[in-house]
Amino acid sequence: MMDQHMVSGHAPTPPTARMENHGPTMAKIAMRTGAELLARTGSMVAYEGFIQYESNPAALRRVASQWLSGESVPLMRCHGDGILYLADYGANVVCVPLNDENLSVNATNVLAFDAHLTWGVQRVKGMAKFAGQGLFNFGISGTGWVAVTSRGVPVVIDCARDGEIFVDPDALVAWSTGLEMKGRRSFKASSLIGRGSGEAYQLGFSGEGFVVVQPSEDSTERLTEQQQPS
């Protein structure tokens, strides 16, 4: 006989919001007729009720047109009535409510968002000079829900409450585009032991809005540093 106490600790609970976490690495979305969702292709892990998911031709055309920027996000359209569970290979998930706001997200961290939101690749001003970052990001705006992923448990900073924050661009997941941004140049700790160029950049954020930061820098940058001669 299966241990009912063990089962109850992991059993689904009634949804309390359109989008919320079921544990740290799964998003739970309350689906209802007429409220469609766009989700990363292949992210569905389970559902209750009657949920359909399929390729969205319009979204695919938009994604194809954005491949040139290097920030494409493969999307599927989800609709129906029930509860949908999404995950991305065990990555941590953060569910973010937008209230007539604009969010800029690293394309690799997009998990899902309400289909009625405005979205697309956007140019990020002033980012070209920062290591590991390009000129483009995935922009989502309007009123609704967004789920983003993080490599490890992220920290979400409310700049209006907590004040200015400086972030390594390679650990940056998402931020409110209404925030004021500025750059700062310093030195990498690795330069003290002869690895890398010694230069590092941070992005400063201040104002009304929030920043999502993951506890992991870009692995390609660390690999490049490790391959450089000491």
From TrEMBL:
Region annotation (Disordered) ranges: 1-21
Gene3D superfamilies the record matches: Mitochondrial biogenesis AIM24
Source taxon at top rank: Bacteria
PANTHER family: ALTERED INHERITANCE OF MITOCHONDRIA PROTEIN 24, MITOCHONDRIAL (PTHR38074:SF1)
Protein name: AIM24 family protein
